[in-house]
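Trying the structure run again after the queue cleared.
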Amino acid sequence: MFTLRALIVLLMASVLLTLQSCSGTSALPIATASAIGPSQWVVAWGASSQNALASTQNTGGSEQSFRFLVYPTIGGTQERVHFSNYFGTTPVTIGAARLSVASNGDSSASVDAAHDAGLTFNGSKSVTLQANQEVDSDPVQISYLHGQWLAVSVYLKGTFSPLTQHDAGFSNSYSSAMNVGDVTADTSGNSFTGTNTEWLLVSAVEAYGPYQGTVAFFGSSSVDGHNSNLGSSNSYPVSQTAVPGQITNRPSDLLAQSLLEAGYNFGVVNAAFSGDTAGEDANSRAGIVTAGVDRFNHDVLQLPGIVAVVIYIGGIDIRGGCLPATTVEGSISNIIAQAAAAKVRVILATLPPAEYCTTGQPVPTTASPYDGDLNPGPENPGSTQRRAFNDWVRTTAATLPGVVAIADFDKVLAYPAHPDFMIPNLNSGDNFHPDGPGYVVQNSAIPLNAVAGR
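Done. Tokens:
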């Protein structure tokens, strides 16, 4: 006699095998029965909102449609989309919106007409978001596999100011010309004549099902995947170059892949963006970047199904603010305490090489690419503080309530010959970020059993 749990597993396996045979997409094996959780909403894809600053790709406009391409971290059969006017200062009206399976990843604006559904909001096709307001769409049922891209199409009615955004960096999304109106139902994508690398207004796609929960990856540009589209064919000090199609090496994507391959069933969120600091003491760009201690509750603890967070932040405080390790430790302790109070387990990361204090101190140059390194010295004081911070992470912080494990990124990325630098072929060339394979190595230091609560 089948138990209900076993029946669920068989039904999900049958659905996914059918989808795989129809789509031709190579899917990961379905999670085992031990990885089936209670039916709940989790975040299949998410990217923390940064700001609503005007730019060449976020100008505001009128009567325009957008098609945003996102790469979900789990497969699903029932979804809703989270729209955010969190940083907006004026109302914005969504006149129509759709969720679809993208036809060609992010290489074109076309979508699969057989896996396409209009979104509603409390039964209405349209909704107006006031300044600082966020909203979830009503659920729709679209079946997709991990490895398939999704498209969120949005028609913005009337005029609108620059929108709440997240810089996608090197992932493509699409827009229509201004005043074209509602072309969200154009499955061919021909109406979307413009491209951009911003996710505007859309901040999450959430899935409902027997998942184990949501995991957040919290930090700044090295969590957001800066330079993760670069290869490792060169060795520092020669910079790496982009690899066409390498667009899923972001840390959140890599962690999701590892969890799925290990038989777990979590959604993973990119709760990071470039330039973010752990504490307010280093936040010299007030109104542009929200410090980690201030955004952690909104960007992590309010996520549906949140059960764990990987915290990897503080490098910008040391590098840009030239702050002492003790100041960063105070900010991280605050963030950990917030997570512990919410019963969210914490995996805390060490800071890999790169944290140079940039105010008149020895730093790498073209002529002397290893200036500021411990060997031969003198060491840049930012790196000295990074070492002190990492010692604190491995000892004191590891015992704080809520911390269940350490992810020692420093240990796996440091170059033994020059320990303030990353391994040469894993260094993207800017001395602050790994390349794509470097992010893969970094990911190997995350203890999956601790993430999963095992």
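The longest helix spans residues 4-23. Worth checking whether this holds up in the mutant runs.
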